[in-house]
From TrEMBL:
Ranges annotated as biased composition (Acidic residues): 118-143
Annotated Gene3D superfamilies: Transferase(Phosphotransferase) domain 1
Organism: Rubroshorea leprosula
Transmembrane segments: none
Name of the protein described by the UniProt record: Protein kinase domain-containing protein
Alphabetical list of InterPro entries matching this protein: Kinase-like_dom_sf
Stretches the record annotates as Disordered: 116-144
Amino acid sequence: MVMQKCDVYAFGVVLLELLSEQESLRYVVDEESGGYSRQSVIDSAKKAVAYGVGGVRKWVDKRLKDLYLLEVAEKMVELALECVEEDLAKRLDMGLVAGRISKLYLESKTWAEKIVSEGDEDEDGEDDEDDASEDDAEKEENEEIKISDNLIITHIKKVQHCINKCDIKFWISGSMRNPGG
């Protein structure tokens, strides 16, 4: 039971790293002292959530360029923070985590498909795919959405692979162990 909870914790850290494109532990310049201070991805995620409206948007991987469903990103960050809960009794089990990630993936995919399909219709509801008058800005925006969607799907597939195979090697207490073998 304890080892499974450790795996969930490590998975939560990996999920936060994927969402933010931050390392699990990094050093940042302390503005007050001018020195360096340690900051974990967990602490930065907690600060983003505590910041309220816009906190998660500023924290999420900048390469996504706001081309994602913010509510899904917020739920994913909250899920990851539940995975890294210090109290073992409150920490989620992996089955629940997998189910919630799958649900969030479907929400995100449905949203992305809706956005792309809305971009393909003109004002009278006719399909605009073959219409040469579509301006370059719309084409670029649709392409950015597709790129963003692919990036999100890639991240989620990595997460699902980790859940399904359970073959990530985690660093725990300074030594590496493989939960799958």
